Amino acid sequence: MAEVDGSGWTRVASIPAGAIVEAHQVGAHVRAYLIKGSVRTAQGDFAQGLFIEVFPGGEFPRMEVLQQSELFLTVEGGYDAQVSPSHQPAVISHVSTVQWRSAVVKDLPAGAARKPLGDHDDFGAGILGVLPGWDSPFDEWHTFSEEIFILTGSMSTSFGVMRTGDYLSHPAGSDTNHGPVFSHDGSTMLVLRHGPIGNTYVPAPQGELERVRGLD
Questions:
Q1: What are the backbone angles phi and psi of residue 134, rounded to the nearest 5°?
Q2: What is the pLDDT of residues 54-105, one digit of tens each?
Q3: CB within 8 A of 37, min separation 6: which ones?
Q4: Sign of the CA dihedral with 46 first, then 47, 51, and 52 last
Q5: Secondary structure (3-state) at 212
Q6: Domains of the chain
Q7: For residue 112, which of 120, 123, 100, 122 has the smallest C-alpha distance?
Q8: Region 24-29: what's the mean pLDDT?
Q9: Which residues pair with 145 in a beta bridge?
Q10: Are 94 and 46 in contact (CB under 8 A)?
Q11: Taking a C-beta distance cutoff of 8 angstroms, is the pair 159, 178 a contact?
């Protein structure tokens, strides 16, 4: 579990087959991604790759769990907080229906693409994919907070090697510098953003580049 902007939390919920999550109002901004299993909603049956976004005062949809499932959840605000009801509908989409597009960060090195799942205002949610051998030889900071959950493959970073199921949170601001990043085998990852898009890249020291590229 990790804090996000202000009050809130991030976790992976394991839900057994046969469980039913009844529709309910939430007091927070909730983003959820099905990383394992399958579920049934009013919109149909979905396997891994279902994305749900609910706004404060909105309704989290009823969900019947068809197979043992794992749901990545990030919540900003108090989940059970008493707030005025919202008529803004939940966003429900599946990664299989979304086309690959250019990454939203214009200076991101070539070899990366993104499937947008929930972009609006200062929020963004999507799947980022990088090819084997992808290399970002920079130290970097950005104007938005960022959460990353590795879905497939691996990413060698200044913090170590991230593999399937690993999670990383980057607060916004120049005091949270990170990088460089390299992927031996390629990777796909869920990336959640909060804040205006803005990245600053500075070439990383050669010694750090070699260290990160040598991780496996």
A1: -60, 135
A2: 999 999 999 999 999 999 999 999 999 999 999 889 999 999 999 999 988 7
A3: 15, 17, 47, 48, 65, 66, 67, 68, 69, 70
A4: positive
A5: helix
A6: 8-96 (2.60.120.10), 112-213 (2.60.120.10)
A7: 100
A8: 96
A9: 194
A10: yes
A11: yes
